[in-house]
Amino acid sequence: MSEKQVVTFRVEDRIAWVNFARPEKRNAMSPTLNRRMMEVLDELEYRDDVGVLVLGGEGAAWSAGMDLKEYFRETEAQGLRGVRKSQRESYGWFRRLRWYQKPTIAMVNGWCFGGGFGPLFSCDLAICADEAKFGLSEINWGILPGGGVTKVVVDLLPMRDAMWLTLTGELIDGQQAAAMRLVNESVPLERLEARVREVAAILLQKNPVALKFAKDAVRRVGAMTYDEAEDYLVRMQEAANFHDPSEGRKEGIRQFIDEKSYKPGLGAYDQ
Ligand code: ACO
């Protein structure tokens, strides 16, 4: 298989649909896939015709985690240099996605294991199928959830749930994942893409500069004191003003106060 086929993407109606595309390997993340994913993210990030990125999986899996043969065994055979290189490649695109210019939605159609929790967390929102199955299988083959995965579950979940998944390696389905708040919502698989389109449509109505600064703020302020966060948010809004050539916030106020053409409590202003 060529490097380019392990990730597929298309842009339609301002949504970039990016897919893990090794269905025959349950979309396990190999070094080849990790390198290609970084290229695809790079290609799409600043395109004017992309407003939202959706990360899905082809076939029965979202991602079966890191490729145990190509990511672990084969790189370990190359020694530390190989291991560190493959770690940089995977952590690199996870990080790129965490701080992506556009809002991102994980569309989890099936299996999501171990290292798959990295990109799951990187996506700003996550919608899954009731039929999806999530698991921290690391413990089943004798390791701890590394590569940031333990941090992901501790950040997203209460301690008992994080500990349960980590120590038992038991699977949970989509509805359990939603109840645990590992994802925003779970819907029947046949409704998954339609629901993701609806959520993307909500995001596409918003000011794109405000979306980028708001999503970064949500990720950043958790580690700050209240005073640090207050200060950071003032500065970030000022930076957002600088980066928004449309002066969206003034226009938003104008359409409400002067034009009375919309109500901010009920939806976005007309861009
Ligand atoms: N790494 C490498 N190869 C994989 C992986 C993986 N993570 N997951 C699946 N594959 C391969 C299988 O080896 C198999 O290859 P083959 O056709 O050449 O024999 C192919 O994908 C299909 O896998 P099956 O096991 O036959 O598919 P099935 O649908 O029966 O089971 C399941 C799917 C449950 C996902 C199973 O493949 C599995 O348990 N995979 C490993 C999941 C896992 O523990 N991932 C690692 C998490 S830890 C981490 O990411 C750090």
Would you write up a description of this structure?
With 271 residues, the chain is of the alpha/beta class. It contains 11 helices and 10 strands. It has helices at residues 31-44, 68-76, 80-98, 117-122, 149-156, 159-168, 174-180, 189-204, 208-221, 226-243, 248-257; strands at residues 7-12, 15-20, 52-57, 61-63, 104-108, 111-113, 125-129, 133-135, 172-173, 185-187. The strands form 2 sheets. It has a 6-stranded mixed sheet, sandwiched between helices. A 4-stranded mixed sheet has the order 4-6-8-9. The longest helix is centred in the N-terminal third of the chain and has 19 residues, at 80-98. It is globular. Residues 25-26, 28, 64-69, 111, 113-115, 137-138 line the site of acetyl coenzyme *A.
Helix/strand layout:
Elements: E1 7-12, E2 15-20, H1 31-44, E3 52-57, E4 61-63, H2 68-76, H3 80-98, E5 104-108, E6 111-113, H4 117-122, E7 125-129, E8 133-135, H5 149-156, H6 159-168, E9 172-173, H7 174-180, E10 185-187, H8 189-204, H9 208-221, H10 226-243, H11 248-257
Parallel strand pairs: 2-3, 3-5, 4-6, 5-7, 6-8, 7-10
Antiparallel strand pairs: 1-2, 8-9
